[in-house]
Amino acid sequence: STNGGNGGVDCVVVDSELLANGGDAPAHEILEPTIDTLPIVLYGDSGDAAQLARWHRLARTAVVRKARTPEDLLDQTSFQLHRSPTKMSESHRNILRELHDANQVLNGKKAMIVDDDMRNIFALSSLLEDKGMTVISHDNGRDAVSSLQIDNHVDVILMDIMMPEMDGIDTIREIRKIPGCKHVPIIAVTAKAMKGDREKCMEAGAWDYLSKPVDTELMIGVLRAWLG
Fold this sequence. Notes:
- By secondary structure, this protein is of the alpha/beta class.
- Helix content is 43%, strand content 16%.
- The protein has a five-stranded parallel beta sheet with strand order 5-4-6-7-8, with helices on both faces.
- Helix 4 (70-80) packs across helix 5 (90-102).
């Protein structure tokens, strides 16, 4: 899929046979400094752990995901390209539905929602609890940081960016300083999709970015991909 940015590429799918055959060269061509956050999906079962680790190092800040089956590949690329299931063909929606029903990855997971609008917290909490998740929430960044300093056992954080006092970007930066929170998926959510917002969020330490009003099916797909 192309959008005119990042050399016209939004996501790269690499056949893992390249890893098995020592094919690191394409990574140097793909992962230029200007596109070092480009998502990469390694497709197939080839490639040993050392080769996969090299790709992760080459990717720098890029996300590297593994897809072993065609169904996994559809799931991962849909997630990376933020394709809403409602815009897919019925056959593709059925594939994803069966895959997700078989993999109850959200059940039992713990999410933190940080948003100064209690209506948003209520709506998101209801949605996630319906998927079997435990939800804790805070209406400001300072309380979220203080909470995580005491107990950092959360599986994912949904972070509103437009908050008074400590905004979402500053909150993300503070969370990343907490031991045990360096690798927790943080998904930035903002009502104003301004140019450069995504880059600012990713630089602060977010792993993904969604715009309001949030497409609930898309958000669930994003959560499944990060927590799967």
